[in-house]
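Second attempt. The first submission of Ribosomal protein S19e-domain-containing protein had a stray character pasted in from the spreadsheet, which I only caught after the job came back as garbage. Lesson logged: always re-copy from the clean sequence file. Corrected sequence (191 aa) follows.
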Amino acid sequence: MGSATGMHRIYNTAMDATNCDYQIPGICQRIFRSQNCKLGSSKGRILTNFELQAQKFISAYSAFLKRQGKLPIPGWVDTVKTSCSNELPPQNADWYYVRAAAVARHIYLRKTVGVGRLRKVHGSVKNRGSRPNHHVDASGSVDRKVIQSLEKIGVLEHDEEKGGRRITQSGQRDLDRIAKTTVDEEEEDDE
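This time the job returned cleanly.
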């Protein structure tokens, strides 16, 4: 009974926060998505990645990276598998841009992330036939090269204190700008 009351309290707090100008904490944001709640209008306030669905943002940011043309891409992207659990390479020709956008968003939301954590996030389940499936981490080389590519264009930087990578000011500005344009396009489609 206590946990249900706590969830109602969190939900009511989240519902009160819809008209405010501050960003919503993680649990409230998940409640918003599960309840399909609309956030307040984006006109006159700053939007962040916290207020946008991951798939829409990643597709918009990957299109931006491809259109910009500055992201250095290794020569092996058309033949490499992204994990030992995969049978084939990615079928999407622009998968490197999509992975770069996903990595940039992940680091934006979590402040400091290393290659090991990204391997776990992008890992998948290995099909072992009749034996039970097991989680397998993704390729460290792919995530490391994506991080290095994002560092070269100035989106990420190395964090000396904690280790790992963090988002730069210019990278954060780009991500916020893409988030705002994506939300504005959604609002125009709704009208």
